[in-house]
Amino acid sequence: MSKIISPQVEFGGLLSQMKAVTPEAFSPDGKILNLMEGRWQETGTPREFVSPIDGTSLGWMPMLNRETALRAVEFAKGEAAAWAATDLDERKSRVQDCLNQLREQVELTGKLIMWEIGKTYKLGFTDIDRAIEGVQWYVDNIEGMLGQRKPLGLVSNIASWNYPMSVLLHAVLVQALAGNSVIAKTPTDGGFISLSLTFAIARRCGLPVTLVSGSGGELSDVLVKNDAIDCLSFVGGRYNGRNIADALSSVHKRYMLEMEGVNTYGIWNYSDWTGLADQLKKGYDYGKQRCTAYVRFVVERRLFPQFLETYWEAIRSLKVGNPTLVDNPGDQLPDLAFGPVINATQAQELDRLYANALQTGATPIYEGKLDESLFLPGQDRSAYRAPRALVNLPRQSELYFKEPFGPIDSIVLVDRVEELVGEMNISNGALVAAVASDDQKWAARTAKEVRAFKVGLNKLRSRGDRDEVFGGLGESWKGAFVGGTLLVEAVTEGNKPVLGNYPESLLLPEKI
């Protein structure tokens, strides 16, 4: 018997729920609008958006041109002074109201995220839940973090599609809580529907937030370099990040540019293979489409047989399939490791990188297969890829210096500690790394030589929540660090230096 799409996540029903909750976000003919100049308007040039889950159409992105986006920026800037003058207790009250209303829509938001960016239900729920609970922590602690600091004005947000709530919405609400007006661009690859729902709630609560859609090429100038923008928060790839960094080099404004790097896991003199197996499985959350995903394992050569056995057993147990399917209408949604990558184009890019690695001399050690029973018969599977792994990746391979942003691992074998450190530092800076060894003192000492902002000892490190700071070293981050008090300091001004990774200096917090 073939599977069915669970009635609880059928997209037409979810969209009807959203229209009932936030009717203002829709045009009379059912298209989602842009939130600008304090109200929902402007359909822009509609661009069809299809789900990575099965290729079905989810609606139309309202793509704006530069001139219309400029109107949005100018109005958002005009809201900044009055909002900055609003008493902190009033700002807290409005953000709290927003959080209370968002909590009522957690299920709906998480299920919309599934269809938009292909997350499993568990990960979609976690994304919105982390955003709400993270901002709640700031509401409860903002007085001590803010002190006498003053908001910067208008903060612009350009973020990737993989965490629309726990990264983008979270940042926007904290920026507003700190007294700034805020404008955000919806990620072009996914998230505009769920973000429209949450931003509609935020605006209804009186928060000065603006949400616009459009291509990066069309909107970059007004959202990055325009004089009305006082601060830029960017999350994305190195290519776009470097271009933005270059654009900001002659403009004196605050910025936080989070970019990718090759996050590595070094293994030396190690024997806890059961513990590593659990980490390997956990590392495949969302098909490694995370800025903190570990995609390179640097392994002491003599340990390769044990590593390979552990890797095979762990990865072959992962289930990859359509996250909306069940056997019967009342069944729970499937417990999958991950679903599709973000779209068919990214899947094809992963194929190209893998083929390039093989052509340049890498050796494949694992090629997973998709399980037919985890899909609908004949459904579009163009965005699905099973895990793959390579060893002996040559330096001429593109993957050697590049994060794949998908389910491809590479393993590098080394004979000396100096080699291990060198290979772990291959991308000139990373957000996270890990060093595993039975010798804890050696691991702690070696971790200091790894150019990553956070280095785990025998465990994975993540972005972190609440009071945990976050940033990057080298080319993985530019500008102010965030997380905890640092996020508030990044979007305000006061009488102390803002910690961060700057062209002229690196100002690190005492504890990471």
Kindly describe this structure:
It holds the Pfam family Aldedh. InterPro entries: Ald_DH/histidinol_DH (IPR016161), Ald_DH_C (IPR016163), Ald_DH_N (IPR016162), Aldehyde_DH_dom (IPR015590). Keywords: Oxidoreductase. This is Aldehyde dehydrogenase family protein. Residues 46-485 form the Aldehyde dehydrogenase domain. The chain is α/β, with parallel strands linked by helices and 512 residues long. The protein is 38% helix and 19% strand. It contains 15 helices and 23 strands. The chain has an eight-stranded mixed sheet with strand order 9-8-7-10-11-20-22-23, with helices on both faces. The chain has a seven-stranded mixed sheet with strand order 15-16-17-13-12-18-19, sandwiched between helices. Strand 7 (154-158), helix 6 and strand 8 (181-185) form a beta-alpha-beta unit. The longest helix has 26 residues, at 121-146. It is globular and about 65 Å long. 52% of the residues are buried.
